[in-house]
Design brief:
The complex is a heterodimer of chains A (208) and B (364).
Chain A (H helix, E strand, L loop, with lengths): L4 E6 L3 H11 L3 E7 L2 H11 L3 E5 L6 H9 L4 E6 L5 H9 L3 E4 L4 H12 L7 H17 L8 H11 L4 H8 L3 H20 L2 H8 L3
Parallel strand pairs in A: 1-2, 1-3, 3-4, 4-5
Chain B lengths: L1 H25 L7 H24 L7 H21 L4 H4 L8 H13 L1 H21 L7 H50 L1 H11 L3 H20 L6 H20 L2 E6 L8 H20 L5 E8 L5 E7 L13 H13 L3 E6 L5 E7 L2
Classes of the chains: A alpha/beta (208), B alpha+beta (364).
C-alpha cells in the first residue's frame, strides 16, 4: 500500500477543517491543523507535511503569508470561496502550487491533493485564465519578465478551456509528463517574476 | 458633509460680521442714528455667537426653520435699517454699508437647509429690504441706474442662495451614494466570509443532490448580486454577465455545472458581436445539455491575437462524429449563422465519447 499522504489543514473555520478531513478519508493523514497563518507556519515546520491546505483568508495573513513563508518547504494548496480574486494570483506567485474552490467535490479534492503532494501543480482552468491574463499584461508593459513561449501559452490556454493534461498531450502530440513540465515552467516564470517584484510593479503601474 | 458645510459657513459668518463692524467703524462719521446701527450690529453678533454655539452643541438645529428664519430676519432688518441709520443721500452715494455681506450667510444657510428655491426666495426678500432701505433713506427709484442697482443686489443675493442650495443638494446626494456604496461593501465582506462559505459547505457536504443544487443556485445569485454590478461598466462586464446568465440557464435546465471564465482585458465589442457571442454560447450550452448530456461545461473567453475575441465552450458529454452526423438547426443556424453574420468563424471539435468543444472567433 502506498504511504499515507501527510497533510496540514489551515482554516479559521473549524467546520471546514472537519469537512475537509472527512472528505480526505483513507490515503491521507492529517498531521496538523491550524486556525491562522502563524499556527499554519508552525505546524508546517514541525510536521513537514507532503501538502498543506490553507484558506486564502485567515486571521494574520492567510494563505499568501503561509505560501511566502513555507512555499519552498512544502506544497501549499490554497482553498478559496471565490475564483476571481487577484489574491489568488498573489498566493500562487508567492509560492503556492495552486488552489481549489471550496465547493470542489470530495473525489476531485482528493485527486488534486494527491497530485499536489507528488509535486504536480494544481492548475485549474480559472487559475490558468488568470495567469494568461497576467502574462498578457506583462507583455504589454514589456517589463523584462520572460514571456511565455508559444507552446506554454498553448498549454495554458487549453487548461483554461477545460482540457486535462492527458487531453492536452494527445492534442499537441506530446507526453502528459511534458505537459506537466510546461505547467511547472509557467509557474516557475510566475514565481521568478514575482520574486523580482516586477509583477508588483506592473500591477501598480499597469492597467488597473 | 452637512456639518463641514455649516462649519465653513460659521467661519464665513464671523468674517462677514468683522467686515460689517469695520465698515461701521470707518463710516461712523456718516451715522445719523448710531444707537440703531450699534444695536443691530450687536444683534448680528448675538446671532453669530448663537449659531457658533449651536454648531458645537446641536448642529442639526441649524437646519431647522427657527434659526434659519431668525438669521434671515436680522439680515433683512440690517439691510432695511441701512437707510435709517445713515443720513439722507446715503442710499446711492455708496453701496450698502450696514451688513452688505453678513445677510448673505442667512441666505446660504437657508440654501443648505432647504434647497435652492427657498434660498433664492430669501435672496429676493433681502433685495426687497434694500428697496425699503432706499425709500426710508428718502431717495426714490426714479432712474434706470438706481433700479438697476437695486435689482443687481437682489439678483446677487438670490443667485448666491440658489447656487449654495444646489451645491448642498448635490453634495448630499453624492454623500448618500458614497455611504450606500460603503454599506454595500461592508455587507459584501460579511456575506463573503460567512454566508458564501456556508453555502459552499452545504453544496459540498449535502448528500441530497437537490439541496446541493439549491445551495449552488443561492450562492450564484448572491455572488452575482455582490460582485456582478460592482464590475466596471462596459463591454467586458456585459459579456461576462450575459455568459454567466447563459450558464445559469444551462445549470437550471440540465442540472450540470457550467463555469464561465472571461478575461478582464477583452477588446470592446460591437453590440451585434456581443449578441452573436452570447447567443452562440447559449446554443452550445443547450446542445451540451440536450444532446451531449454533459455534466460539466467550461466557457472561456480571451482576446485573440488579431484584436478580436476567442471563445471556447467545452463539455464532457457523449460527443459525436462530425463526419457522419448531420448538423441540426441549433448548430448550423444558431451558432454558425449567428457568428458568420457578425463576421466571425466557428470550429467544432468532437468525437464519440470525448465530449464536444465549440470554438468561436469574433472580430472586434
Amino acid at each position: 500500500m502506498a504511504p499515507l499522504i501527510r497533510v496540514v489543514l489551515a482554516d479559521d473555520h473549524p467546520i471546514w477543517r472537519d469537512g475537509v478531513r472527512a472528505d480526505l478519508g483513507d490515503g491521507f493523514w492529517v498531521v496538523g491543523e491550524a486556525g491562522n497563518a502563524e499556527e499554519a507556519i508552525t505546524a508546517i515546520r514541525r510536521h513537514k507535511p507532503d501538502v498543506a491546505v490553507c484558506d486564502l483568508q485567515m486571521p494574520g495573513g492567510g494563505g499568501i503569508k503561509v505560501a511566502r513563508e513555507c512555499g519552498e518547504e512544502t506544497r501549499i494548496v490554497i482553498l478559496t470561496v471565490s475564483e476571481q480574486e487577484r489574491d489568488l494570483l498573489d498566493a500562487v506567485a508567492a509560492g503556492a502550487v495552486g488552489y481549489l474552490v471550496k465547493s470542489t467535490p470530495g473525489p476531485e479534492l482528493r485527486a488534486a491533493l494527491w497530485k499536489a503532494a507528488h509535486g504536480e501543480p494544481v492548475f485549474s482552468p480559472a487559475l490558468a485564465a488568470l495567469v494568461l491574463g497576467e502574462f498578457r499584461k506583462l507583455a504589454k508593459k514589456s517589463s523584462g519578465v520572460s514571456p511565455l513561449s508559444e507552446r506554454e501559452r498553448e498549454v495554458l490556454q487549453l487548461v483554461a478551456r477545460g482540457h486535462s493534461y492527458k487531453e492536452i498531450g494527445a492534442k499537441l502530440f506530446i507526453a502528459e509528463k511534458t505537459v506537466e513540465n510546461h505547467v511547472r515552467n509557467i509557474l516557475g516564470k510566475l514565481h521568478l517574476s514575482r520574486r523580482q517584484e516586477l509583477i508588483r510593479y506592473a500591477l501598480e503601474h499597469g492597467i488597473e | 458633509m452637512e456639518r463641514s458645510a455649516l462649519q465653513g459657513l460659521a467661519a464665513f459668518r464671523w468674517g462677514a460680521w468683522l467686515w460689517m463692524a469695520t465698515v461701521l467703524l470707518v463710516s461712523r462719521g456718516d451715522l445719523e442714528r448710531a444707537w440703531l446701527a450699534l444695536s443691530l450690529v450687536g444683534l448680528a453678533l448675538a446671532v453669530t455667537v448663537a449659531h457658533t454655539v449651536l454648531l458645537r452643541t446641536n448642529p442639526a438645529a441649524l437646519c431647522r426653520p427657527g434659526p434659519v428664519a431668525a438669521e434671515l430676519a436680522v439680515g433683512a432688518t440690517l439691510v432695511l435699517c441701512d437707510g435709517v441709520a445713515y443720513g439722507p443721500g446715503h442710499a446711492f452715494s455708496t453701496s450698502q454699508s450696514l451688513g452688505s455681506v453678513w445677510p448673505l450667510t442667512g441666505i446660504l444657510n437657508a440654501g443648505i437647509a432647504f434647497g435652492p428655491l427657498v434660498a433664492a426666495s430669501s435672496g429676493v426678500l433681502i433685495g426687497l429690504a434694500r428697496v425699503g432701505a432706499v425709500l426710508l433713506n428718502g431717495a426714490s427709484l426714479d432712474s434706470g441706474g438706481r433700479i438697476l442697482s437695486v435689482v443687481n443686489t437682489t439678483v446677487f443675493y438670490a443667485l448666491g442662495g440658489a447656487a449654495a442650495g444646489y451645491l448642498a443638494r448635490l453634495l448630499r446626494k453624492a454623500e448618500a451614494e458614497i455611504s450606500a456604496a460603503r454599506a454595500r461593501e461592508e455587507v459584501a465582506r460579511t456575506l463573503h466570509d460567512g454566508v458564501l462559505q456556508t453555502l459552499a459547505v452545504v453544496e459540498r457536504r449535502a448528500t441530497d443532490p437537490a439541496l446541493s443544487r439549491l445551495a449552488r443556485e443561492q450562492e450564484r445569485e448572491l455572488r452575482d448580486w455582490l460582485f456582478g454590478s460592482a464590475q466596471p461598466a462596459g463591454v467586458v462586464a456585459d459579456v461576462g454577465t450575459a455568459l454567466r446568465a447563459a450558464a445559469a440557464r444551462f445549470e437550471d435546465a440540465f442540472g450540470g455545472r457550467a463555469q464561465v471564465l472571461v478575461a478582464d482585458d477583452l477588446p470592446p465589442l460591437e453590440r451585434a458581436a456581443v449578441a452573436a457571442l452570447t447567443g452562440a454560447v447559449g446554443e452550445a450550452l443547450a446542445n451540451a445539455g440536450k444532446h451531449g448530456r454533459a455534466s460539466k461545461v467550461q466557457v472561456y473567453v480571451e482576446p485573440d491575437e488579431a484584436g478580436g475575441v476567442f471563445c471556447s465552450v467545452k463539455d464532457d458529454g457523449v460527443g459525436f462524429d462530425p463526419a457522419t452526423t448531420v448538423e441540426g438547426i441549433g448548430l448550423s443556424r444558431s451558432i454558425r449563422g449567428r457568428v458568420a453574420e457578425a463576421g466571425g468563424r466557428v470550429e467544432i471539435v468532437s468525437a464519440p465519447g470525448d465530449g464536444t468543444e465549440v470554438l468561436l472567433w469574433l472580430p472586434s
